[in-house]
Design a protein that fits this description.
By secondary structure, the chain is mainly alpha-helical. It has a single domain (3-193), classed as dinb family like domain (Four Helix Bundle (Hemerythrin (Met), subunit A)), CATH 1.20.120. 58% of the residues lie in helices and 4% in strands. The chain is built from eight helices and two strands. The protein has helices at 3-13, 16-34, 53-70, 85-101, 103-107, 120-143, 151-162, 186-193; strands spanning 109-112, 116-119. A two-stranded antiparallel ribbon has the order 1-2. Strand 1 and strand 2 (116-119) form a beta hairpin. The longest helix has 24 residues, at 120-143. The radius of gyration is 16 Å and the shape is globular. The two termini are 32 Å apart.
């Protein structure tokens, strides 16, 4: 199996309903973590170099909008992340969740630069679902709290990350792989693989 085939396997075989369910579950987890950020904690640094807690939420929302844009849509009137990060994410989440549950909107497609033809459903499952998990951890660290990521998502993200090859790392992607501590659990191993020190 080639790298590209490995990267596309899970997203291409999951049913639209399963993708929508996974997105809603992970978005709910991310929203719950947003609620843990104290009012004076939005400028706290995150594990993503140069990013604050607010920047992490902004990145997630921007990516939601990016994939909507690639199928000719937008998020509509989304509040400013500078004023209310929770409301901003809630608005973006509502739009994407609605489109995943709408068969016509979910099936809208585009030509990806790296992975070729994808439907909106496949793109959300391949990229946004993983972002919601990994950046949830980043946001929690910025807020000074610990989160346990869903073990099934940790395993899924690691399988798919292995198939991204050179596209996994570099500007706008993940940093260099780190060596996890001896005896580290799977969450810690995944985070180290994605350049995060726990």
């Amino acid at each position: 199996m080639s790298e590209t085939e490995t990267a596309t396997t899970t997203a291409d075989t999951a049913t639209p309903a399963a993708v929508a369910d996974r997105y809603e579950r992970l978005a709910a987890d991310f929203a719950a973590t947003i609620a843990l950020v104290p009012a004076d904690g939005w400028e706290s640094p995150s594990p993503c170099e140069g990013w604050t807690a607010r920047d992490v939420v902004a990145h997630i929302v921007e990516n939601h909008g990016m994939f909507e844009g690639w199928v000719g849509r937008d998020l509509g009137d989304v509040p400013s992340v500078d004023e209310d990060p929770a409301a901003t994410f809630a608005a973006a989440r509502t739009v994407v969740a609605g489109h995943l549950r709408d068969p016509e909107a979910a099936a809208a497609s585009f030509e990806g630069v790296v992975f070729g033809h994808m439907t909106f459903t496949q793109a959300i499952d391949r990229f946004i679902a993983s972002d919601l998990v990994i950046h949830r951890w980043d946001l929690a660290r910025a807020a000074g709290v610990d989160v346990v990521l869903p073990p099934d998502e940790v395993a899924r993200i690691r399988r798919e990350a292995d198939g991204f090859g050179e596209h996994l790392r570099g500007p706008g992607a993940f940093g260099a792989e780190l060596t996890p501590p001896e005896g580290a659990d799977e969450q810690t191993r995944l985070l180290a693989f994605l350049g995060r020190r726990t």
